[in-house]
Amino acid sequence: MALPLRTSSYLHSFRASKETPTDTRTSPPPTKALKFPPRLGPLFWPWEKVKIGPLSVSPMGFGTWAWGNQLLWGYEEDMNNELQETFNLAVDNGINLFDTADSYGTGRLNGQSERLLGQFIREFPGDKRTRDSITIATKFAAYPWRLTPEQFVKACKSSLDRLQIEQIGIGQLHWSTANYAPLQELALWDGLVAMYEKGLVRAVGVSNYGPKQLVKIHDYLKSRGVPLCSAQVQYSLLSMGRDQMELKALCDSLGICLISYSPLGLGMLTGKYTISRLPRGPRGLLFCQILPGLEPLLSSLGEIAQRRGKTIPQVAINWCICKGTVPIPGVKSVKQAKENLCALGWRLSSDEIDELESAAMESPRRMIQNIFQTR
Ligand SMILES: NC(=O)c1ccc[n+]([C@@H]2O[C@H](COP(=O)([O-])OP(=O)(O)OC[C@H]3O[C@@H](n4cnc5c(N)ncnc54)[C@H](OP(=O)(O)O)[C@@H]3O)[C@@H](O)[C@H]2O)c1
């Protein structure tokens, strides 16, 4: 079974969901009854599922950074009902990969993304087989106080507690410390080995590793008998430089799945933001640096979307899929999830891909890279 739930508390929660009140161990207060979301129809064929080590995941996952983040994403707890419907809609339409991290959630909401996912999995109203196929990919922060493998194992156990499951699908290192604390790096790697050997994670992955560092960790893990299954990196039409291309080629040669994060450029590739219509907070500051040069790319996305009867975000996500990656767009509402789900079930032509990439090259600005990204 891909997602063993904690049995005793699961039964408790199941009983509680039939009666009232609901399990309040880690959940927010009882919420209104959720509608069972509609099925949008078959969005991909079974053979389009992607192998990540022993796991088989949908060609697109959803990212949950916003679920608990007030500062950047304007999260409020009264969004939880909608997020739960968003989750249900996604799972019922075949999405079985959800990306999160132990550092997601701001201030007192630290860990909220994992907690919400845990709650939503347990309360998923669909069939058990569908729920059991859900793969949670979480990331462990390389905090400076996590200096030993045991501390990573402890972090993994805390994530399991928040998620209320017995085993994590993909345990990923959130970033490498090679740039600023190279001596800590081996503890991170041994932490991954220990989690894997203890059966706390089914597969291991990394995030924000560049090609050089990826080869090093791949070889080290291999020497310890642990396969490296995934590499998560910022990858989109706004982040498609030489490093991303090199990393993708390397992943292909090593049998590692490349997971593309921020495939919508934090929202800039949805077409809804302009220099006079910016999101609140730090994103607005970033967007006003980048958006003025994005005209060629946004026009190209818009033209292709119109010709195809698709929308701009669907084209931007589809590009990531066509490049052989598994995108994990962030979603905050049922409307966004519905729209992004329809990025599946079709493919851009090679001419359209070329058109988009030339337009992206014409745009003078790119996304800034994660400060922890290594070479
Ligand atoms: N490994 C790492 O270091 C790392 C770093 C970043 C992200 N990630 C992962 O990757 C996931 C995705 O990246 P991201 O969330 O940074 O950015 P993203 O996927 O590029 O953008 C997501 C945002 O775009 C907007 N949006 C999404 N679909 C839309 C639609 N159909 N129409 C209009 N607006 C839409 C939403 O924000 P608004 O409605 O507020 O505009 C949403 O939160 C994250 O959730 C996280 O799991 C990992």
Automatic annotation (TrEMBL):
<dbReference type="InterPro" id="IPR023210">
    <property type="entry name" value="NADP_OxRdtase_dom"/>
</dbReference>
<keyword id="KW-0560">Oxidoreductase</keyword>
<dbReference type="GO" id="GO:0005737">
    <property type="term" value="C:cytoplasm"/>
</dbReference>
<feature type="domain" description="NADP-dependent oxidoreductase">
    <location>
        <begin position="59"/>
        <end position="359"/>
    </location>
</feature>
<dbReference type="InterPro" id="IPR036812">
    <property type="entry name" value="NAD(P)_OxRdtase_dom_sf"/>
</dbReference>
<feature type="region of interest" description="Disordered">
    <location>
        <begin position="14"/>
        <end position="33"/>
    </location>
</feature>
<keyword id="KW-0521">NADP</keyword>
<dbReference type="InterPro" id="IPR018170">
    <property type="entry name" value="Aldo/ket_reductase_CS"/>
</dbReference>
<dbReference type="GO" id="GO:0016491">
    <property type="term" value="F:oxidoreductase activity"/>
</dbReference>
<dbReference type="Pfam" id="PF00248">
    <property type="entry name" value="Aldo_ket_red"/>
</dbReference>
<dbReference type="InterPro" id="IPR020471">
    <property type="entry name" value="AKR"/>
</dbReference>
<dbReference type="InterPro" id="IPR050791">
    <property type="entry name" value="Aldo-Keto_reductase"/>
</dbReference>
<protein>
    <recommendedName>
        <fullName>NADP-dependent oxidoreductase domain-containing protein</fullName>
    </recommendedName>
</protein>
